[in-house]
Amino acid sequence: MAADHSSDVFHHVRDAHAIELPQFLGGELPLPFGLTKFMLLQVIAGLLTLWIFRGLAARVEGGKPTTGRWWHFWEMLALFIRDHVVRPTIGDGHHGHDDHHEGDDHAVKAHAGHPADKYLPFVWTCFFYVLFCNLLGAFPWMGSPTGEINVTGALALATFVAVVIYGSVELGPAGFWTALVPHMDLPGPLKVILVPMIWLIELLGLFIKHGVLAVRLFANIMAGHTVIAVILGFIAMEGVHNTGLFYLVAPASVLGQVAIGLLELFVAFLQAYIFAFLATLFIGTAVHPH
Asked: Does 240 score more than 60 pLDDT?
């Protein structure tokens, strides 16, 4: 009897947290997790990112130029991230070259590629994925997955892992963590006290700046959607109908929503750029510390 009661309790708890998948995804199959709209939108954003990357790679293979405005647009964005974000931010890791060899170095880089290009796949993926997640919110009944803190948190976590891996590969596992503290010429006793304190502060800062990376993306995307919802909510206000202001408020709200929507398109590109830039900055700090 006790076993049957425990079994009933287990099934009751399981059913309470189970969901029913839509018919086109397999019918009424209970799962122990929630399938949300944002999950499906993230898959769409990932497939769009893969399609763009594969399409560009196939068209520039062997040094061939791209054709068509559609592919020119995406190539322009990719080259902008490469030439104005990744390469100048991360650099080549070498300083103090004399003028005699500077021209030869540039010639070699032009032929063999820039040393920072090895980080391009990750930064490109961040930029395009965040961009598509942002742009999906411009379509009715969809939404921006980056307006969910769990999504941006996962993106920030992926960036943190990438920073640790890239830094560990460049400096060594121990070298990456010890490089958090800059070199300081201090007396022995003072060094013993200050270095651990500074290391803990830098370690805490490493976690905080990646946490802020998640919060700022979520806040900026969520803010735009909230403003749009508030503006459209004016139409449904009871006072608007009671005072006869509906025909004045409704057109103004719709026009305001259109204006905010256009601003949201700009914000979608801007926030994708900022996320890619900050990820590049964190990688550059990890591989070329202080």
From this structure: no
